[in-house]
């Protein structure tokens, strides 16, 4: 660490603890469609997000829901179409390389694929020293060695000498991901953006990585944005969970509350669809349909074509995030105080009886019920 | 079989009508021809019964896909089957060894008897042909003399069966979503009403809601058409829901083979237990889980004795000397249908309580 620039970990004590370290306001990202005559993919729309120090926030959604786009926007790997990005409450949108360097020192990213994110021709020593030199100035000799040892030790690659001169191909997937985490830690960041950090790893070592991140968050007081498609792992690892559907946030709240008592019909469907050997009776069966096209997203609530409770209001007006409990919100008109709101039933009751009917139905009958809504 | 195995949703593997349809016996596979090939499968024996869903679970590189490909003789070089037999029993009761079939017999038998839905099946459709034609081709190849119109009609029927509107016959693969392509692959695999359907990670690339739909569809079709399924995946929690029986593989061997609910409630092998504890639960108390220490093994440098010893929390000095055979558990009398490969099961007295739940 250098004395030339203020170290992010210092100086924060004066900060109001209520100020999120990283905040996004009304984030929006449209991608142009090639040859689409002005058509755009509405990848992320009106996303507000607040991440505090020492907090793990999970962003859960299926592929194409925009969760990785948010990570890239927060890392400023690409510019947002609209919206504001705040670091400690002040505008953090970078223009130019120097500002970007300053920003990434505080906000680091871990990618999904540790096989692709480490350069195969360089040793662990090179990968980590480079990150150390970029973010902490000219370390050399014993100081560099010391820093390398500390980093490897922090990600539990012990003994460090065994790993420091290894090439990525000599390491297992889990070890590679640990090196990638060490590289991010070299910058001594305040925020880690972890984009599906465990989904490419063998199942038996996934929890090891999550436990490591948990440990880092506690010891280094880092805020972690954990992006995942696996809502059970969000429950395990994250304090708060945000559920995304088709580019919009549909539900936020405490992880335990969101998974145990989901409010939004989509979250209910998600929770009831996840494999869970203990809850086999609580299965959402017979659910149909797929995520909509984001080039021409459905009007109103984007879940309305699949939602069993949708009414006209859902088809015409976008539901705002409504308060549905202590520190919980859901973007569903069912929780609004309006006369024309839909009345929500249980997803379970809606879909639960399907199997009995399907088992006896004729092929034609099964298809009529199962036709894709596209 | 215990009552718990039949209590699941739509299971019907009754002990009374246990009739093997595919028997894999001592199958061994090496990768590489030279001086020291890598032994990827070592003496694997496994039986699939008629109408049963058999789950094959394990981490990547444990040989579960290799087992499926070897058993159907689809293994590409440098994979080499070095021993064993794979006996297929016809509906008429005739038994044939797939590994010794002539090429012509094999061509006739594939798809007709045993069909496969490959890993990443969504990308195994030919992008330049309409899906109707692709399904019809498969039907025509196995049904000499069938008219094009008839084959297409059958293709429409199949699409209908997997919940896709028949007017999609003229769609190109890129016009369908991932989940629909996967269902087209399942429809194709079922085109000739095979007795055995092998599915290699059929839902891994899909989202959970779509996965649920596909899994449901398979269960429904199996009930109607009565085929047997080998379902390969690393997602043990999914298998517990859908499989009747689960075989857990580690480093090219089966380490435990038991009814799905038994594996879940009462794992007998330390690796099965570790694997189950690698999936954070969606319900119940939130507690710290550890996964399994260490890394998956390198098949080129396997330890002597039990291959799981370096990662096993219960290992004894004996474990690194004696290679365990797949055999009865310590409670053989009470659970005759279970097999486990762990020397700790030699004696009930020394069995750790974690592996002895009743």
- Per CATH, the class of the largest domain in chain B reads Alpha Beta
Query: In what order do the strands lie side by side in the largest sheet of chain A?
Result: 6-7-8-3-9-10-12-11
Beta fraction of chain B: 15-25%
Strand order of the largest sheet of chain B: 6-7-8-3-9-10-11
The Cα radius of gyration of chain A reads 23 Å
> What's the rounded overall pLDDT mean of chain B?
86
Spatial shape of chain B: globular
Oligomer: heterodimer
Largest sheet of chain A: 8 strands, mixed
CATH architecture of the largest domain in chain A: 3-Layer(aba) Sandwich
As for the number of domains of chain A, it is: 2
Arithmetic mean of pLDDT of chain A: 85
Q: What would you call the shape of chain A?
A: globular
The CATH topology of the largest domain in chain B: Rossmann fold
Distance between the termini of chain B: 15 Å
Estimated radius of gyration of chain B: 21 Å
Order of helices and strands of chain B: HEEEHEEHEHHHEHEHEEHHE
GO molecular function, one term (chain A): ATP hydrolysis activity
Keywords (chain A): ATP-binding, Nucleotide-binding, Transport
Family (chain A): Belongs to the ABC transporter superfamily.
InterPro entries (chain A): AAA+_ATPase, ABC_transp_ATP-bind, ABC_transporter-like_ATP-bd, ABC_transporter-like_CS, Oligopep_ABC_C, P-loop_NTPase
What does this structure look like?
The complex is a heterodimer of chains A (374) and B (358). By secondary structure, chain A is α/β, with parallel strands linked by helices. Chain A has helices at 67-74, 97-106, 124-136, 141-154, 160-164, 173-185, 203-220, 231-237, 255-260, 265-273, 312-316, 347-352, 354-360, 363-370, and strands at 22-32, 40-51, 56-60, 82-87, 90-91, 107-110, 191-195, 223-228, 240-245, 248-254, 322-325, 328-330. Chain B folds into 2 domains: 1-113 and 194-288, P-loop containing nucleotide triphosphate hydrolases (Rossmann fold); 128-191, no CATH class. Helix content of chain B is 27%, strand content 20%. A 7-stranded mixed β-sheet of chain B has the order 6-7-8-3-9-10-11, with helices on both faces. In chain B, strands 2-1-4-5 form a 4-stranded antiparallel β-sheet, with helices on one face. Chains A and B meet through helix 7, helix 8, helix 9, helix 10 and helix 13 of A and helix 5, helix 7 and helix 8 of B. Chain A: Belongs to the ABC transporter superfamily. Chain A: Residues 22-271 form the ABC transporter domain. Chain A: Keywords: ATP-binding, Nucleotide-binding, Transport.
